[in-house]
Amino acid sequence: MDNFFVQPVEKKVSAVAWWQPQVPYSDGQLYFYSGTWDQGHANVLTLWTCPSPDIRSRQLDQNFEARIVAQTCHTGDVADVLPLSNNMCATASADGRVYVYHAPDTSASNGGGTSNESTLEKVQCISRLSSAKTSDIPSPATSMMDLGNGSPAQPLITAKIYEAPCTALSLQPHCPHDPELASVGEDGRLCLHRIGQSPEPMASVVADSLPLYDVAWLSSHTLMTAGRSGQLKVFDRRDCQQPMTVLVDPEDANLSVTCLAVHPSQANRIATGNEFGNMLIWDIRQLSEPYTNSVSINEKGFAINDLLFHPNQPFTVIAASDDATCTIIDTNACNPSAFNQNPLYQPTAARTSTTGIRTLRNLYNWLGINSLDYHPQANALLAGSDSENLLYEFE
Amino acid sequence: MGIVWHMFELVFINTLDGGPFVDDYMEWLNLNYPAPSTEEGEEIGLSIDPTAHDSYWPYIITCVLRGHWTVAERLLKPLVAKMTSQEDKLAVSAAIDLLYTVPRLNQYQDGSYQHRAQPQPYPSVAHFMADWQAWKQKCEEWSVQTFASPLLTQLTELFAILAGDFATINSHAHNWQEALGGILLFGNPIADVRDAASFLVDCEGLHGDHNGSLEDTDDTAPARRSHVEQVVLAFFQYDLGSAIRYCSYIDLWLATHLVDCLDKLGHLHEIYENLQTDMREYLVLAYGEMLMAHPSFWQVGAQYLASAPAKGLSLMEEYLTRLPLTSERKAGKVLGLLKRYGLIHAYRQVCRCLARQYLDRRAYGSAISYYIEAGEPRRVGHIVDLLLQDYIHTGELTYQSIIDNLGVEVNYSDKLQFLSQYRDFHEMYKQKDFVQAGKLLVRLLTSNMAPKAFWHILLVDAIPLLEGDLLVFDVHETHELMRCLEEITSSHMRQTYLTTFSPLWFKIAANASNSTPNDTAVSEDAALTVTANQQLDVIRMALVRNLARATLFQ
Description:
The structure holds 2 protein chains of 2 kinds.
Chain A: E1 2-3, E2 5-8, E3 13-19, E4 29-36, E5 44-51, E6 67-73, E7 78-83, E8 88-93, E9 97-102, E10 121-127, H1 131-136, E11 166-171, E12 180-185, E13 189-194, E14 203-206, E15 212-217, E16 222-227, E17 231-236, E18 245-248, E19 257-262, E20 269-274, E21 278-283, E22 291-296, E23 304-309, E24 316-321, E25 326-330, H2 331-334, H3 336-339, E26 357-361, E27 369-375, E28 380-385, E29 389-394
Parallel strand pairs in A: 1-26
Antiparallel strand pairs in A: 2-29, 3-4, 4-5, 5-6, 7-8, 8-9, 9-10, 11-12, 12-13, 13-14, 15-16, 16-17, 17-18, 19-20, 20-21, 21-22, 23-24, 24-25, 25-26, 27-28, 28-29
Chain B: H1 2-13, H2 22-32, H3 38-46, H4 56-65, H5 69-82, H6 86-100, H7 125-143, H8 155-162, H9 166-172, H10 176-186, H11 193-198, H12 220-224, H13 227-236, H14 240-250, H15 252-264, H16 269-275, H17 279-292, H18 298-306, H19 312-320, H20 328-340, H21 344-360, H22 364-373, H23 377-394, H24 400-406, H25 414-430, H26 434-446, H27 455-467, H28 475-489, H29 494-500, H30 504-513, H31 521-553
């Protein structure tokens, strides 16, 4: 059992993401975004900076603390945050929209120790309801678009349109210019957006009749969704009307799949976490038996809220769960038969237990961890929790 | 709150072995009520003649009362040079020496308080007491001396303090805490916490008058004391009821956690017997409820409520079922909590609320899913009826994706299974697998899986199969279809069966045949029944023709 370093932030953290500026502000600084939830009208999106730990010792200074670079109020819970190119980031909001923000000017927020806080400028508000869909709704209304003045525009006709919360975002890979942004929501809708263009989705399909919790691009033209139905659906972005493939865990067919992650180099390998604390590795090339490795990361059945593949260790998955722990799973050690065909396979016994599972927790963080991210260059794990903490682990 | 916690730790946890209390007390005193100030010391030290400074003696005496003897020695040293007579010099040197050689039972870990002349602790209390009595004897001897120098007027009092004279200690102490420190240091250094409490009567700062009684002879004395002081005094007197009461004035969190710790240490049995109530439960519930009232502290509040064994879970149930559920994330967390604590009734209630929300938004898939979790087959059946109505009105199987996404949950109720199999019937029909489609249709009718109000729709669906080139239904199956037809047409609920699911085409036909503009609902139903009857006549004819063909084929 290892300990996280904890920094209290006084708001429940729902989403975190490391951000690597195209032009680094300074060498010794790391940057990340965090978003909050369950704060009523006081949710915020924050850009933080923290010193990179000593390369030799990898030890954190006792006075280690991330500092706020910029912050802005966020309409609705921040369900997901995704750094984009050109110093921008997108957020999935519980008010059903996708917001795009611009980070402050680098010269104004140099990480050298200035304490001036800037504001993240809202540059776009994207509705997940297309105008066609809006017109289907009996109540007359206009979509509430806002292009950068910082506050939501007032609708011309006030009407109650329910926009289901947006739950997750994913950015199209291998597309340096105008990548598409995929979003999913509790209405089971999968939307594709292009940043800086139309405030309406390019494509919007009902991918599931139950809420969707996560989305990820497998390649530049295929997407995968996961949700309450427990089904993993692969869509071709050129024809999103029907899924190409539907995968179900036969042992836990009724359990919601709460999160999914795609292997950074092998897009056919997927990791999913479910509401009962089971992590499953899939190989979607083998459609007859795609699930290869299942690990129960907690005995009491706490939900896995987020997970990712370790960017530098291809057989390691990191999962954050509602039992206030982050679990680092060496999938080789958990089930050697599954992956030990790999000629580079070396058990990382020095850092993992005999079962290949290492758990990170902290006494001062005893509510669920909602989100995590790993910085591949700094080898830094970042997480945010309901105990109103940011959590750090530098390997 | 830190002052209270620190004292609680000293009185109830650290002194379980009954050891001397003075070191712990002095640490508490100097940490929480620091004096004298460093700034004042620097001011005295940097003055041209420190010994002439107004605060010189008060500063030294405060240092002595607080155990900062190194500082006191350092300040006394310049005084030796200023003494003109040999006796006075000897007296000041003696004071410095006495401060340097104060016997201590235990090594004090803090460097400023550590006694340099005694590197090792005493092997026994008896050894220590012998040394201490000898040292005290010297102090008493010096305390009765008089000195010629006007600078040494306070030195006699310093010796009196070292000799453990309570009156002198009280006269120089700034508050009762400091006086108690002095009394413990120089009056009885081996006193345990209970003995220390007995010395409170000697602390004059606690009382309005100086009659030495701990009882409040001056009515205004308790009012002058802060709540924190009241709590500390209550700890000393083991008056836990008062301690908890004053803690609750400071902060409910403090009172709750204090009572929790006292309960775990087994100190609350007496209070429970006197009050006939579980004080821990009461305070934990009160604090938990306070947190539950906050919009974002409900998770922490629930944990507090869960730790109250008698009524906590039921209160938690009441609160969590009334939380506004604005997103799936929040709903998932609430359901997770309820499941973890085995509150199945509340779990189902929350699922029902969520299902209702989704139903209002016409998100039928999610509504069915949550109603299944809530164990509500009748409500699932109601949504299935809505989906069937939707199909009847639009002619499109809009519920296909719902059935696909529900997966194995379609087996939850007969109506869902019917919906699933009816979808399969249409799929087979689309793929021109008419025989299998026909057999499935007969199975849906004969197994009573289909609602009777939907039978006439199924029979209408059978018409193309009955009239097609291929013989789909054999004699037995045709007889079954005929039986179903007669069952609804000869029933006393015939009109209900024929009008509950009225297809769009029935209504168009009914409106066309109905010429009167001001029709009532009853007449509309009657018109629909007529239209349905006409349709059933078509079915009846098709069945008869199919029976003839099947008989011939057989």
